[in-house]
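ok trying again, last paste got cut off:
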Amino acid sequence: MRLLLLSLLLALLAGCASGPSINTQYQAQGQNSRVQYIILHYTSTDLAHSLELLTRGEVSSHYLIAENPATVYRLVDEDRRAWHAGVSQWQGRTWLNGTSIGIELVNQGFYDGPKGRYWQPFAPAQIEALIVLLKDIMQRHELAPGSILAHSDVAPQRKVDPGPLFPWQRLAEEGLIPWPEAGAVARQQALFEAQLPDVAWFQQQLAEHGYEVPNHGQLDQATRNVIAAFQMKYRQANYDGEPDSETAALLWVLNNSASR
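nice, full thing came through this time. structure:
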């Protein structure tokens, strides 16, 4: 009898230790992934230092992609929050660590030399590995094209990564991000050359696109930084932060595209 009671007690304790009994036979239709965005970064250093920074410090990311060979490292499970975006905002959502997957690319970024700023190109194999990873993440989390962002998109006042040499158009060719149609841009640019929209228009259009941007109608440094972030993605030959007709056309076409 004592042995039976002891067995029952141990079984009861084991049940308590394993947590509550939960029935999972029903699933709600009204749900989706907590992941809304994928944010791309460069590490500004080599692989060894990147791994040290991202695994032993306070900064982290879900994935790190090396250059050669283009190894993909998973450093944080996707169901957990990585500390990669910092103070950030997109489409009115803030502090995007909780709703995004961070991907770091091993790349030195830039340095300023006597002939100006030099940016390191990305290794082709590294980009191909990234594309495979992006397609997998987007399929599993049911993300729409346009969910992939630059760190400079979500924090344009303090970040420039992944920089003007990142091949955004290559991602567009794979259907991962929207891209402005060249003919539509040319037609719209001709109209804007006749009359350039004012700064308030640029601020409104940038905000509609997703950026956090001032709305006071003045061309201050904060507004220039946001314009430069947009240009660094869609017009990489010139990202001076000036509100010109080509930038206006690119912005207008993207905001009015049916595939947006």
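cool. The two ends are 72 Å apart (CA to CA). The first strand starts at residue 37 and ends at 42.
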